[in-house]
Structures are given as structure tokens and as C-alpha cells.
Specification:
Order of helices and strands of chain B: HHHHHHEEEEEH
CATH class of chain B: Alpha Beta
Largest sheet of chain B: 5 strands, antiparallel
Structural class of chain A: mainly alpha
Radius of gyration of chain B: 21 Å
Oligomer: heterodimer
Number of strands of chain A: 2
Strand content of chain B: 15-25%
Distance between the termini of chain A: 54 Å
Shape of chain B: globular
Strand content of chain A: under 5%
Distance between the termini of chain B: 78 Å
Strand order of the largest sheet of chain A: 1-2
Number of helices of chain B: 7
Helix content of chain A: 55-70%
Chain lengths: 263, 204
């Protein structure tokens, strides 16, 4: 009697799970080649909607998000940017690039798992190959000969993207301290990816772990071009500019694969 | 009689063929525009603060050949365009074009010879999309231009960088400002932004 009941419970729970998360238990959005160009002519809202505007991002928490935005801005101007500048002066660009390679290499399992979940088997294999080449030939991942010598660009995949490909809606806009723009789906994704990050299982104590994360964060900031100051300079409302750009960018990632370089 | 008719028909059909092929492809029209821009930006004789104004006016002349700022302005304002008076439309277009000039010139100033590769083009009626990539320190960033055909000339009305459309980004910002401050408030914000560019810094 008990056995039969349990058998019914499991699919029942699964259905509830899918229902709550808004997932559809069918195939994910067909894996588009990473370099396929989007079709921007698909629908002409402007001419076909009698002048009705396209919908923006759902942001019912806007007052709260804006407050965090102001906080983050101060944090950036007074703490993060100065720290980044000092860090950039202390370490030459090549070294910072190597550290970035090291961090990205260690995060390979995250990309691998998500690429598999999305059915992107070619990309998943590329991740494995890149990990092998970079760890061995690139001396524990500090170099990236896979990209420079073997023309293997790093694919990128995260759990937020995976959820999106399984047609989970983005949910409302969330602006987090430090991490910046996100939404319900991508926040769930970040948490899930954190759990899969191998660095968490190596046995570092909390100081070492914080040191690693902090350094990786500042290092990344010092290596990618600074779009934030530009955004403030050229926007009339930087909060909305970032909100819309984040949403458009994530949607583009979900429609077509994506390589790390395009982050 | 018959020969004359045939010759006449032949000539007419040749004319039609010529007209039908008269419009070049969007990529063929966009390439020289972008090339003239990159050449201007690479011109050693125009670099530095001393030549700032001359550089700016020449960039603007080159851009206007292939970019339709009026169309961009209308699309960015969206539905509100229908709701404002002709004087307001004129004022808006003037300020908006100035804002777009400031934005484009400002962003182009940070261009430093990166390689632009044309990937493909797609045409759908009177609209087209030209996809390029720009090589930034080894990373290839996809940049798509969306164009409209006006009088046999393809003009860009939107730029899409990695999925982020310039027109829809500014349109959302405008919607937010219009909601709280209405059209008058929007004009104030645009005019103030233009003033801050004139002062030479842009607000930070």
C-alpha cells in the first residue's frame, strides 16, 4: 500500500515543482549556434502597433531597487573603483589577465553542467577540452592557450540562462547590493551556480574563501572595460538604462548560446 | 510598326531593369559610411583637443550620410510623438538630434582602430539588418545595424550591441521620465544633458 502511494507522490511533486517554477517539462529552446545572428526584423512594433509602445521590464519594487542603486553607486565611487584602481596599478595587466584565466578555469564545471542541461553538447565538449588544455599547457589555468593557440573561444552558460531556455520567465527586476542588476530567475541561477562552484568544496576557511572571492571580483572588474561611468555619462536615467540593457542582454543570451568573451 | 514596338518595349524593359537594380544592398551602402568614420577617427591630423570642434563637425557630416537621426528621435519618443503639437515636435527633434550627436561623437571618441568585420545582411521589404562584429582586445562583440529604405538610400535607425538596442534603451528611459515629469520635464532633462556635454564633461 505504502509503495503505491509513494509512486504517485513523486510525479505529483514533480508536476507541482514545474508548475511553481513556471517550467515546462518539454524540450528546452533549441540550442542555437553561438554565432547565429539574431533576427531583428522579426516584428516591427513601431509601425504595426498603431504607435503603442513595447513593454518594458516588470519592476514593482522600483522604489526599493532605486534606493539600492543609489547605495551601489556610492559604493562604486567611494570603495570599489578606488580599490580597483589601486589594484590595477599594483599588478600589470598581464598578471591580472592570468588571474582572470585561473578563476574562469576553476569555474569550468558550472559552465559544463549548464551547457549539458541546455543540450549544447558541442559547447560542453569545448569546455572539457579547454579545461584540459589550459590546466596542463596553461599551467594550472593561468594561461589560456586553448583560446590563443587552438582558437577555442570559451563558451558561457549559467543556470539563469538554463532556466530561461526551459522557458522560465524572468520574474520581476531585482537590483542587489554589490552584484547589481538581476531578476528572480537569474538570482535563483546565481545561487544554484554558487552551489556548483568547486572552490566551495576545497576546504578553505571563511577568511580564505572571502579573500578568493573578493580578489576574483576586483580582478574581474580591473580586466573588463568600465561601462558604468559611460552609462552614467550618456544616459538620462541610468537606473532605467541598466535595467533595460540587462533584460535585453539576458534575453539575447537565452535565444542564442554565447561565448565568454561576449560577457 | 511591329519592329518599332518591339524596340520600344525592349528599351523600356532595359530601363526597368536598371531602376530595379539601382538600389544597392544595405551593406554596400553602410560600408563606405563606416569606413569614412573610421578613417576620420584614425586621422592623425585631427587628433587632440585642438582639433576637437573640427573633428566633431566632420564626424557629424559623415554620420548623417548613413544614419537617420530624425527617425531615431521619433522612434525613441514612441507613442508620445502623436500626442504633442508641431512646435513641440520641432523642439524635441532639434534637442534630440543634438543629444544623439553628443552621444555618438562621445562614444566614437573612444574608438581606437578596432577591426570591424561585416558578417551578413538581411532584407525584409523596406527594412534591413546588417550584422558586424567589432574586435575589442581579442573579443568579438556583435554590433547590428537596423536600416530603413528611404528614396533608394538605406539609413540606419537603430544600433543593437549584443542584444541591447539603443532606441529601445532610450525609449524606456524616456517612458520613465514621461511618467513622472511629463513632456515638459523630459525636454528639461534633455536640454540639461546637452548643456552638460557642451561644458565639455558630461555629468558623472
Amino acid at each position: 500500500m505504502m509503495k503505491i502511494r509513494t509512486l504517485y507522490v513523486i510525479p505529483g511533486v514533480l508536476c507541482l515543482w514545474f508548475f511553481v517554477l513556471g517550467l515546462s517539462p518539454i524540450d528546452p529552446i533549441a540550442a542555437v549556434a553561438a554565432n547565429a545572428t539574431p533576427d531583428l526584423l522579426a516584428d516591427d512594433d513601431y509601425n504595426n502597433n498603431d504607435g503603442q509602445d513595447a513593454e518594458g521590464v516588470a519592476d514593482p519594487l522600483e522604489p526599493w531597487n532605486r534606493a539600492v542603486f543609489v547605495f551601489n553607486d556610492k559604493l562604486y565611487v567611494w570603495v570599489l573603483n578606488p580599490v580597483k584602481n589601486v589594484y590595477s596599478k599594483a599588478l600589470p595587466r598581464d598578471v591580472r589577465g592570468c588571474i582572470d584565466n585561473f578563476v574562469n578555469n576553476l569555474a569550468s564545471p558550472i559552465v559544463l553542467v549548464n551547457a549539458l542541461l541546455q543540450g549544447r553538447f558541442d559547447d560542453a565538449w569545448t569546455v572539457v577540452e579547454r579545461f584540459g588544455i589550459n590546466t596542463v599547457l596553461g599551467v594550472y589555468g593561468f594561461g589560456d592557450p586553448a583560446a590563443s593557440e587552438f582558437a577555442m573561444a570559451p563558451p558561457s552558460a549559467d543556470f539563469g540562462q538554463t532556466l530561461g531556455r526551459y522557458r522560465m520567465g524572468a520574474g520581476i527586476y531585482l537590483y542587489w547590493p554589490l552584484f547589481g542588476p538581476s531578476n528572480v530567475r537569474d538570482t535563483v541561477g546565481r545561487v544554484a551556480d554558487y552551489a556548483v562552484n568547486p572552490v566551495n568544496y576545497v576546504g578553505l576557511n571563511s577568511d580564505e574563501a572571502l579573500g578568493y572571492s573578493g580578489t576574483a571580483f576586483v580582478n574581474r572588474m580591473s580586466v573588463v572595460p568600465d561601462a558604468y561611468a559611460d552609462t552614467k555619462k550618456y544616459s538620462l536615467d541610468p537606473y532605467v538604462a541598466i535595467r533595460q540593457a540587462y533584460s535585453d542582454y539576458r534575453n539575447a543570451r537565452i535565444r542564442g548560446g554565447g561565448t565568454e568573451g561576449n560577457q | 510598326m511591329k519592329v518599332r514596338t518591339v524596340v520600344l518595349l525592349f528599351l523600356l524593359s532595359v530601363c526597368f531593369c536598371a531602376v530595379a537594380n539601382a538600389v544597392e544592398s544595405p551593406m554596400a551602402q553602410l560600408k563606405p559610411t563606416l569606413k569614412s568614420l573610421t578613417d576620420l577617427l584614425a586621422d592623425e591630423g585631427l587628433k587632440g583637443d585642438a582639433h576637437r570642434d573640427e573633428r566633431r563637425s566632420r564626424i557629424m557630416k559623415a554620420i548623417k550620410v548613413g544614419f537617420d537621426f530624425e527617425e531615431m528621435s521619433k522612434r525613441i519618443l514612441g507613442r508620445t510623438w502623436q500626442e504633442i503639437s508641431p512646435e513641440e515636435r520641432e523642439r524635441f527633434t532639434r534637442q534630440m538630434i543634438k543629444l544623439l550627436e553628443n552621444i555618438y561623437v562621445g562614444k566614437l571618441e573612444s574608438y581606437s582602430g578596432q577591426q570591424i568585420e561585416f558578417q551578413e545582411e538581411r532584407v525584409k521589404g523596406k527594412r534591413a539588418q546588417v550584422s558586424t562584429t567589432i574586435d575589442n582586445q581579442g573579443v568579438k562583440i556583435p554590433v547590428h545595424y537596423v536600416l530603413n529604405l528611404t528614396d533608394s538610400r538605406w539609413m540606419v535607425y537603430d544600433i543593437n550591441i549584443e542584444g541591447v538596442s539603443l532606441v529601445s534603451n532610450y525609449r524606456e528611459q524616456f517612458k520613465s521620465i514621461l511618467r513622472t515629469d511629463k513632456f515638459a520635464g523630459l525636454m528639461k532633462v534633455i536640454e540639461e544633458k546637452n548643456r552638460s556635454f557642451e561644458k565639455g564633461k558630461g555629468s558623472l
